[in-house]
Predict the structure.
Amino acid sequence: MDGQPITPANPREALALGIAIVYQELSMVPTLTVAENIFPGHLPTNRFGMVNYRQLYQNAAQVLEKMQVHVNPRALVETLSIANQQLVEISKALSSNCKVLILDEPTSALTDTEADRLLKLLHRLALEGVSILYISHKLNEVFTLAHRITVLRDGRYIGTEKTADVTPDQIIRMMVGRELGAMYPSKTNQVGSPLLEVQDLTLPNSKARNSFKLNQGEILGFAGLIGSGRSELARSVFGADSKVAGRIFLNGSPVDFRSPQDAIKHGLGYLPEDRKAAGLFLEMSIRLNIEAAVISKVSTNGFLSPTKERTLAERYVQQLAISTPGIEQEVRRLSGGNQQKTLVAKWLAIKPNILIVDEPTRGIDVGAKKEIHFLLRQLAESGVGIIIISSELPEILGMSDRILVMHESAIVAEYTAEEATEEKIIRSASGQ
Amino acid sequence: METTPSAPHTTTSQDTPNANSNFLLRLLRAREATLIIMIVLIGIALQLITGKFLTTPNLNAISLGFATSAIIVVGMTAALVSGGFDLSVGSVFAMGGVTVALALRAELPIPIAILCGVACGALAGFINGFLITQIQINPFITTLGMLGIARGVSLAITQGLPIAGLPPDFLVYGQGQNLGIPNLILIAIIAIIVGDILMRRSSAFRQIYYVGGNEEAARLSGINVKRVVLAVYVLSGLLAGLAGVLSVSRFTVADPGAGSGEELRIIAACIIGGCSLRGGKGTVIGGLLGLIFVGFINNGMVLLRVPVYWQQLAMGVVLLLAVGFDTISQRWQLRARGKKAG
Amino acid sequence: MNRREFLKKSSTAAAAGLLASHGLTLARAQGTQTYTMVTFLSGISYWKDAYRGMQDAAEYLGVETQYTGPTEYDITAQARVLDETIAQQPDGIVLTVIQADALQPSIDSAIASGLPIVTFDADSPLSKRYSFLGTGNYQAGVVAARYIGAQIGSGKAAVITVPSQNNLAQRTQGFIDTIKAEYPNIVTGDEYIVDNQNTSEAAASGLSALLQAEPDITGVFSSNAQAAIGAAQALREAGVIEQVQHIGFDFDEGTLDLIDNGQLGATLAQGTWQMGFWGLMFAYMVRNSKIESVSDWQAAGISPLPPGVDTGVVVINKDNSKFWRAS
């Protein structure tokens, strides 16, 4: 640092040296206030050693003001939107007056508008003399923000280029080690008969009645802002959350899923948006993760058959090209992309008729992202109906045969692949 | 968690480890292996020093000492794997014993009386499971409450008095023997083997690992989480009740104060055996090895003539050393593997 | 009794200066008196005999008795129950204390207000209680030692006990001291102590291990009821129940069964009935001014009663065990 060799043993030492880090996963205490989270290690105290709250809130307000983050320092963190939590997290890092700021995928939970706000802020900080190390999978962000770009692949250093000297395609080539080609598979218009029909489904906290159809072999995109009710809608169709009202038809006959168990029995799969909290068994092996939803299929007379277990896991590890030394590898040791592929494998194993994927490529590398896109298309071509929920507009536009837009727990617009544009979707999603 | 020896499989990964070394490595990595090595070393050391350790009567005495605990370990392993624990086992143990004794004194046939004791334990477990899954009180408070309730019931219905005068035919379970092995040990061995096979291989019991590994992911994978958790606590209570029945048969007296502090000894054994308090991990054999480990240390301290005033201190130190050593060695292995891969 | 008579009588009594107390207590003294027994862990069977003794004395004296105490092992809870009992102003309290010093302020202030208190089983020696009736635990250990000593004469003797529990530690010490002093041919000591943690399981495991280390043990003293049950089972499982002499402590149905079928040589019964019976007698004597050990004991500042009474232990064996059954 500043020409001196340093070996910080822990984040506290690094911070003392002027290096602050914002992690991909939020590291705040949700039940404390914004101000308490910004100054966790150095709360101002009065002469009795008690926290001086007036001082604390003033300091916090100053930091937030400087950052142009408009949240109340007295609000509990858990009441903030994910985007605001992310901004508070960054404010916390900056409150230490650091010289170097490291950010790891800071926009993975943000919508495009929110991400823009963050990028502008970082730009301003750079002008003020803060050095920024920005880790991201999103090339457009990197190209907007960075002066120089360094590419790492499989834990190895590949190269560093000046932004002005390279094109996104060159960077992608460095990232995947080969030509990637198109990110999205070509669409087919051979859509079959209706598979799933949802009528007048109402979500909690809303009166809107939502109806839609999903056809065989179709990829139906759900666009909308974070919190617009897309995941909630998907979860209530899947039986994971209770719905207020509504009817669901599968192949024309009415069904009532009271639990995910019911839905899975009828051939529905749901890949949740938060893979670590709701999707994966992180401390278990790839094999155990892949067979989780089909335990009975790998058993004989109520006892698991090691041969069947191994065959199933190996088949999907191969099919999805999951990079691992073996099927007994713990999932938490895999890269994000391979974790996501494992999760997809779990749902392929149930041989779904309908697969709902919620943010299927969030926080994973472009290579894995492309593979998942092509895989989903391949599934659709085999007759599976697919619902894709994504906050990345290019992904929605690139993948979907038809797009529904949600706003405040209601479906507000429907576009065919041909008529949809980013602009139209954003306008509908923001309620205009 | 799993020690199933399955052939290593390589896909797109760059390194192709030798099949044998991988199997050995995984075996060594398992908590059970470390524990078995420690137990064998302790056994050899005690035999060399005292010359009295590895004798049939001594090993018999040690096994009898933890036979009833071994039965409880099966249920506790399930509870820990599911991500909870059962603090009520010691009290339910006493309640099961008191119930069977009262049933026998009421001149019910012996099988019916035993059933009463076991059912009483299962009922306590059902109440635990119901409160945890339906009312969603956390397992700590729920089973702590049951710890008080079951002990209170035992004291109240006996008015604190031990119950004796049980028919000799009933005492055969805890005192008789078959093929030269005490019945109590045989029953414990059966419980351990059946429990271990079920936890390892049964598709129904596999759900417990998923629930403990990630409850929400388990639910979204179509597992009926509430039913699994309820079943786990019923099992735990049932086995604690059974252990209580067998203990009465061994000692000929149902003591309403029996088994106090048993819950912590059992949980400690399971943790030594590789269970995690966070759930998703652990085997029945591991819990048994934990019990054997503790049993060896206790017995060894008497053989080594450690003064009674120092025994608890020594026990505490040995426990921390055992778990600490294991945790550190696992971290080393991880680091070593990380370096190799990087 | 009407109000006027009541006032007259109480003023007479007060004038007589028999007791420095207030009107309400005196009023009750004219009718049926009430005495209360206060214990801790009040649900356990151990106190039953003591209260039965108290009830027997009450019947003889024509007074009422009450029984109370917290069910838990909690110092604060017992202090609270004692204070509540004192506030109800009974005619006397027969009390056992959870801890020697914790209840002293309550006891002393009650005594100062004229409420007689005697302690039993466990004492508060620094308080102003009139008397303490209980088992001399050390002396009980001596009795056990003499029983084992006479039975085996030589060899080794083990003690099953809970070292952290004061009363049991005293029994153990009495046993070991006496064996060493009076039976030079018998080996015992700290290294022959087994901690049974108040359970039969731990007693059995511990004694089993000790029998491996010292196969020539011929005498065992179990200093509590669970120890006796567990130790008997360990001796049975080791196949030496015929050879080893074993004496227990306290008695319940299970212990008496062991004695009757020859698996336990004897057990020591504490005088719990005696504690209750004589405890009430003592309190009654003070309350009703029946004792004049000196011309004016209050002025002299002494207790009119024997300050400490060892209610002793008696040996129960095969020959007399039937007298403790269903009592």
User: Anything to note?
Assistant: The interface with chain B takes residues 43-46, 48, 163, 190-191, 193-195, 197-201, 204-206, 208-213, 225-226, 229-230, 233-234, 236-238, 252-254, 256-258 of chain C (CB under 8 Å). The first strand of chain C starts at residue 34 and ends at 38.
